[in-house]
Design brief:
The chain is mostly helical. It contains 3 helices and 3 strands. The chain has helices at 2-22, 48-62, 81-89, and strands spanning 38-41, 72-74, 96-98. It has a 3-stranded parallel sheet, with helices on one face. It is globular. It starts with a helix and ends with a strand.
């Protein structure tokens, strides 16, 4: 039961992440961002969100949901403030997703 719940969580998160990537900015109609997308997490390497995010990207890449292995950037500064500040500086960049 726990294994099924974990798998379901990864699948749903992967779908959400791909949907967000496809909603990228830019003018005109058409698809989303092509190429790698930087995924931001507020935990240190090895933290819960980091491990989950990396596993989710691995599953999406192995199942050909994404065509490149997306890098994960860990910004563990002060209760997510560091990650939020980083995201503010990336406003309008469709190649960055916060997790």
């Amino acid at each position: 039961m726990v294994r099924i719940r974990q798998l379901l969580t990864v699948v749903l998160a992967a779908i959400a992440l791909v949907a967000l990537a496809a909603c990228g900015g830019g003018g005109g109609g058409g698809g989303g961002k092509s190429g790698p997308v930087e995924v931001i997490t507020h935990n240190a390497v090895g933290g819960g969100s980091d491990v989950f995010t990396r596993q989710m990207i691995k599953v999406m890449y192995e199942n050909k949901i994404i065509d490149t292995n997306w890098p994960v950037r860990n910004i563990p500064a002060g209760d997510s403030i560091g990650a939020m500040s980083y995201m503010v500086d990336k406003k309008g960049n469709s190649g960055v997703i916060a997790r």
